[in-house]
UniProtKB/TrEMBL annotation:
Family matches, as Pfam families: adh_short (PF00106)
Protein name: SDR family NAD(P)-dependent oxidoreductase
Species the sequence originates in: Aliarcobacter cibarius
Family note: Belongs to the short-chain dehydrogenases/reductases (SDR) family.
Gene Ontology MF term list: oxidoreductase activity
Amino acid sequence: MTKKVWIIGASSGIGLELVKLWLENNFQVIASSRDIENSTKLLELKSKYLTNLELINIDVLDNQNVEKTVSKVFNIFNGLDICFYNAGVYESMSYEEWNISNFESMIDINYLGVLRVLKPLIVNLEKQKQKSNIVLNASLASCFGLPYGGAYSASKAALVNIAQSLQPELQRKNIYLQIINHGFVKTRLTAKNDFEMPQLMEVDYAAKKIFDELNKSYKFEISFPFMLSKFLRILSFLPYSWSFSITKKFLK
C-alpha cells in the first residue's frame, strides 16, 4: 500500500532530498515550508509527479496557521502515515556575539514549532486508528553543549527531551515517535561555520541514510555518523572535569 508522508521543512537540504527519495519510491508526499509554493525545485518535481506531490505552505510560528494546515494535510491523501519535522534554524555564536533574537528564533522554530504541530497532528493520527510515525530531525549537538553552539544544541536537547517524555504515551496509541540525531551535513546552515566539521556529510548521503533507516524496524533514535556519535556519547558520560578539558580545545 502506498505510504503517505508529510515533511515540514522541505524546500532545501535534507528535506528536499528526502522528498525526491520518497517520490522515486512511489510515496505520496506533502511538502511544506513557509513559502513552499514558490520553490523552483519543488515546482519542477510537482510537474513530474502530478498526483503524488502536493505543496502546502506552513508557518510553524503561527498556531492558527498550523492547525488549519494540519487539517488540510489530512484531507489531501485521506490520512497520513508519516510526519517528518525538518524545519530548523542555526547560528553559531561566542558569548560576546550573543543576540537574544537568535536564541528566540532557534527555540521558536527548532523546539516550539514542533509542539505547535504535534498537538493537532496527534489528534488526527489518533482518529485514524492505524500505525503511524512522527519523525523529528534533531542533532548530535543535543548530546553535549559545545563551544559556540550552545543556543542551537539547547533547542535540540529540548526537542530530544520532549520526544523521550512523549514516546511511551504515543506508542500505546499506535503512534511511533522517532528522533534523528545526525552530525554535520553540508547545507546552507553549516556553510556559516568557520571551524573544521568532523565527518562532514553530503546532503544526499545523509538523506539516503535517513530514508534507509526509516524503512527498517522501529527504533526511537537514529544516529550517525558512527564515530562522531560515539565520541559525543562518551563525552556526555565523562566527569565534567574530563569533558571540559576536551571541549576547551575547540575554542578558537
